[in-house]
Design a protein that fits this description.
By secondary structure, the chain is of the alpha/beta class. The protein has two domains: 116 residues, Rossmann fold (3-Layer(aba) Sandwich), CATH 3.40.50; 181 residues, NAD(P)-binding Rossmann-like Domain (Rossmann fold, 3-Layer(aba) Sandwich). Helix content is 34%, strand content 15%. The protein has twelve helices and twelve strands. A seven-stranded parallel β-sheet has the order 8-7-6-9-10-11-12. Strands 2-1-3-4-5 form a five-stranded parallel β-sheet. The longest helix has 20 residues. The two termini are 28 Å apart. The structure holds 2-keto-D-gluconic acid. 2-keto-D-gluconic acid binds next to loops.
Length: 319
């Protein structure tokens, strides 16, 4: 039987590309450019499946123009806010994602951002690197300690729970808000707040781990940022549009928010240049899951989903 043809939109890990080329007829452009609407529409007539990243947008308008040849969108991401799931379902296109395998890598990056934000890493690095380090005092670059502090986690899915596990190692008191309360073994002592506002009031550190949905976009607006304790640290490794960026700039400027660590921005790639004026905002370019181990695992999970689908089974991560 002829191998199915798939389009791999971006440069996935070597191991993933090798396995894909072994099992499929693969269309992949090493130029590694995001696929735009016309790329996606055009390619849908040539392939049976696509492995996209969050950089390819399957809007309702794009989905309406897809060729019936395309049967499955096997995302190389856990987040699927770049896909109009209703439009894809209406069109009979199967959609999968890659839950679980990127939780630890993303939680590690969140921890890095939280520590860097809390301990003036951007400023400290700049001072030493530039040769401007000509002074020391016990009052120099005094930061905020994680030990014993209250950490609020919004969204206790795979990444939120992985982050809670790591934060326990720093002896933080874990609080969380989630659509539903976790079972006691998953909660592992974390304190549940059914009400987001209650969580915010006790979050010396706040880390966002929920998906971007119509309910969560703009979640951290000026009013919610104001509910955090004075001097709180905000971390976002989920999606940029969870935070009102102008409100965050104001809250950092006023000192109400002591520092922030951001891996996600409303505009990507690009970020928000207003943040660059603040050395207490540490930023990374959406690389939460960018480790060799995790990139391999994400690619393999996307391929596992395709394999199952083309065998005639239900893909394990079908949405
Ligand atoms: C990925 C992500 O790097 O999985 C997600 O939802 O945001 C990132 O971890 C990216 O989406 C890869 O496609």
């Amino acid at each position: 039987m002829a191998k199915p043809t798939i389009w791999i939109t971006r440069t996935l890990s070597d191991a993933t590309l090798e396995r894909a080329n072994r099992d499929y007829d693969v269309i992949w452009d090493p130029a590694d450019k995001p696929g735009n609407a016309s790329d996606i529409i055009g390619m849908s007539a040539k392939v049976d499946g696509i492995i996209p990243c969050h950089s390819e947008h399957f809007s309702a308008d794009v989905v309406a123009q897809l060729d019936p040849r395309l049967k499955i969108v096997a995302n190389h991401s856990v987040g699927v806010d770049h896909c109009d799931l209703v439009a894809l379902a209406d069109k009979g296109i199967v959609v999968t994602n890659t839950p679980g395998v990127l939780s630890d890598a993303t939680a590690e990056l969140a921890m890095m951002l939280m520590l860097c934000a809390a301990r003036h890493a951007v400023e400290g690095d700049r001072i030493v690197r530039s040769g401007a380090w000509d002074f020391w005092s016990p009052a120099f670059l005094v930061g905020k300690q994680l030990t014993g502090a209250r950490l609020g986690i919004v969204g206790m899915g795979g990444v939120g729970r992985a982050f809670a596990r790591k934060a326990r190692g720093f002896d933080m008191e874990i609080h969380y808000h989630n659509r539903s309360r976790l079972a006691p073994d998953e909660e592992a002592g974390a304190i549940y707040h059914a009400d987001l506002d209650e969580l915010l009031a006790v979050s010396d550190f706040l880390s966002l781990h929920c998906p971007a949905t119509p309910q969560t976009i703009g979640l951290m607006n000026a009013a919610r940022l104001a509910q955090l304790p004075q001097g709180a640290v905000v971390v976002n490794t989920a999606r940029g549009n969870l935070i009102d960026e102008a409100a965050l700039v104001q809250a950092v400027e006023s000192g109400h928010i002591a520092a922030a660590g951001l891996d996600c921005f409303i505009t990507e790639p690009g970020g928000n240049h207003a943040f660059a004026a603040f050395e207490n905002i540490v930023m990374m370019p959406h690389v939460g899951s960018a480790t060799i181990k995790t990139r391999d695992a994400m690619g393999f999970k996307a391929l596992d989903n395709l394999d199952a689908f083309f065998r005639g089974d239900t893909p394990p991560d079908r949405l």
